[in-house]
Amino acid sequence: MKLTLKVWRQKSGGHKGDFETHQVVANEHMSFLEMMDVLNQTLIEQKKDPVAFEHDCREGICGSCNMVIDGRPHGPQTGTTTCQLHMRAFKDGDVIVVEPWRSTAFPVIKDLVVDRSAFDRIIQAGGYISVNTGQAQDANAIPVEKDLASAAFDAATCIGCGACVAACPNGSAMLFTSAKVAHLNMLPQGEIEASRRVQGMVKQMDEEGFGKCSNMGACEAECPKEISITNIAMMNRAYIASMLGSSTNV
Amino acid sequence: MLLESKVPVGALDEKWTKYRSTMNLVAPNNKRRIEIIVVGTGLAGASAAATLGELGYKVKCFTFHDSPRRAHSIAAQGGINAAKNYQNDGDSVYRLFYDTIKGGDYRSREANVHRLAEVSRNIIDQAVAQGVPFAREYGGLLANRSFGGVQVSRTFYARGQTGQQLLIGAYQSLSRQISLGNVTMYNRHEMLDLVKIDGKARGIIARNLLTGELERHAAHCVVLGTGGYGNVFYLSTNAMGSNVTAAWRAVNRGALMANPCYTQIHPTCIPQSGDYQSKLTLMSESLRNDGRVWVPAKQEDAAAIREGRKNALDIPEEDRDYYLERRYPAFGNLVPRDVASRAAKVACDEGLGVVKTGKAVFLDFASAIQRYGKSEAHSKGIHNPNKDAITKMGEDVVRAKYGNLFQMYEKITGEDPYKMPMKIYPAVHYTMGGLWVDYNLETNVPGLFALGEANFSDHGANRLGASALMQGLADGYFVIPYTIGQFLSGEIRTPNIDPNSPEFAKAEKATKERLEKLVKIKGNRSVEDFHRSLGKIMWEYCGMARNAEGLKKAQRMIRELREEFWKDVFVPGTQDEFNPELEKAARVADFLELGEVFALDALQREESCGGHFREEHQTPEGEALRRDAEYAYVAAWAWDGDKAEMIREDLTFENVELKTRSYK
């Protein structure tokens, strides 16, 4: 299949970026990133600068890859990361537009690579359970209802890719933050720090320059792990409760 | 050089407890001053950095990723073993120890493996306390499943994403230490050299990948949790960035690489579909609980499938060869990975492969679907259900167990594995070899430690499923925090290490020149192109079956390729900027050195054991033939950039009897 790619090129955060057009010959079995490899190989053969993009595991779990493809984070398929997207989802002759995540809190580093370290700082602000190594009791001494464990897993499955932020017209990180709050707050192990956690993480999220949530739901629609926005409702509830019903003040 | 394992004396099951209670300690006031560098943030690195931070040391932690959470431990699917015996099925610390020693084909150190089995129980406790959402039963207690090479259920899991959940647990603990100021995190920094002062590891040269700047980082000691080197094969299930550079730079500074030829080739991966392919994807071993492996019994049927004239469903039951069930009736489809992989290769070599390239076998869920469907019908009180209803109910059960894996398969191949058997083929997955370490996990370079897949110590010549996560976390949470004190207790009078010392300057200069050289070659072949060429040589001659002639050839070819690389590679851009191609080039340069030592190691080991199969050494039935009298040793390699020299550590087995591994 012959494709026309319009790829975002930007030398660095300080430079102005623009689209560059390339022709690529691909086949339907390739993954989207393998198609990008073909493009880069061609560029390197022409002694040109290859397109910088993030990728690592290429099996949808590390959260590195981050391309907005034809206006959609991770491309046209639901529940799919860029690396799991295969070219059979496209047709011969297609024109494909590839851009980086676009958000104030995720500044561009080069081409399609952005800085997502804000997510790490949100986790550092309370996205953990304070237990030192060696302090744990026997694992089966904390029974957890099967459905609850499963619900916690559904929130914990977040890969931290940032598609939720890229999808949101406000650039909000509520889905990411709430998934971690929900994962830990709903488990008995995480309950004790629930108030501190939600306050700390929300505060950090706001400081990083992410936008507000206006219940658009685009984050849920584009999340490659299909994390539900009910987590956001849960976080809002926990946040309000922590401000009204406890003495915690982070 | 004499290699001292430093295994404590005493009975096997008391060694660790006694040693731990009598080893040297570092007082809290000294810990606050002592600096430790941890490189890598996978299960081993992140758990070590977090725990050392909790203990009060000043930790600096490095990853080449944009976040510590991206390390490749995240991709582990199936589970983590622990000798909890929650299932009351006869498991124990001894049994986990024994299974691991046997599974490793008697090429690992008894005392290390026993310690691993002991602390395995603490890992599960720790992970649960951190909020890792393991699978549970209706009673709220933890669920288990079974893995290859064992006959108990001791594997804890979080759907097909156990590695992800455990890594997130370790990452969260690490994040807490970062927020407390006990750990300083350096994202997007790659270790490019080890700095030694007076023979001790005292720091690293790291490249800030965003700016290209070389930085000197000093500490009282250095801990590497930098993973395995499976990407020397180019195509593997490892992440694209997984590399040997940190470990290999240490080897270039005098550390020893042990048993590099021990590579795990995982039997159930999605086969290669074309030359453009960048990586291979694993299908969890848990699928072999229900999937049956087969090939057509007749070559003409296999040919017809390859040419698209027939498909799997056209082959009647009597014309199928369920070769694992036939050859290994006791373990059937759940034989260990090395055995299953070799059997697939044998079938394909006989012309029975089922894809165009000839390199794939079927993994079929049809009988499991029927079995589960009938059982569901029975439990729902449906009498005389029709076949469609059974199939539907059976598919639902299979979906509940393996849904995410089936979905992943369909995304990659475009085929529906509920209707058509999966096509699978072995792929490089894990490397048992690694930096030589003693019982303290210290390399032969004082003050340099190696954890997890980066060391060689626990899996011998073959790793059992669900044991990598166990080892990474055991090393990081429960071993290094103690054993590092043995070294650091002697360093309490050592002032902070000066990064302006001549040793640092020299190492930085050497790194700078090396990078400059790579950028200045401006040849005609891409880094990727060289990497693929190396991978082809490795897979052809150092893959699932090896022989002396091929290994000698590989050694020669790799050396020629390395020479060509340094003459003809093309790296765009400069070293003073964000330059992913330069990062890759420096890694491939190291793989080209490792590859040669790998072939040499495989050549000297004139026996077959675990993942290392020498065609010259097999039984008349084609099973691996170990030679314990001559080869029950660890081969640790010194490398000076040109020549390799082998140093032996003899393995002594005081507690288990060396037997021929049988899964028949």
Lay out the secondary structure.
The complex is a heterodimer of chains A (250) and B (664).
Chain A: E1 2-9, E2 18-25, H1 32-45, E3 68-69, E4 72-73, E5 95-99, E6 108-110, E7 113-114, H2 117-124, H3 146-156, H4 163-167, H5 174-185, H6 188-191, H7 194-207, H8 218-222, H9 230-245
Parallel strand pairs in A: 1-5
Antiparallel strand pairs in A: 1-2, 3-4, 3-5, 6-7
Chain B: H1 15-22, H2 28-31, E1 35-39, H3 43-55, E2 58-62, E3 80-81, H4 93-103, H5 110-130, E4 155-156, H6 162-179, E5 183-186, E6 189-197, E7 200-208, E8 214-218, E9 221-224, H7 245-252, E10 257-258, E11 263-269, E12 292-296, H8 299-306, E13 320-321, H9 323-327, H10 337-352, E14 361-364, H11 366-379, H12 387-413, E15 422-431, E16 434-435, E17 448-450, H13 468-488, H14 502-521, E18 525-526, H15 527-542, H16 548-568, E19 569-570, H17 580-604, H18 628-631, E20 633-639, E21 644-650
Parallel strand pairs in B: 1-2, 1-9, 2-5, 9-17, 18-19
Antiparallel strand pairs in B: 3-4, 6-7, 7-8, 10-16, 10-20, 11-15, 12-13, 12-14, 14-15, 20-21
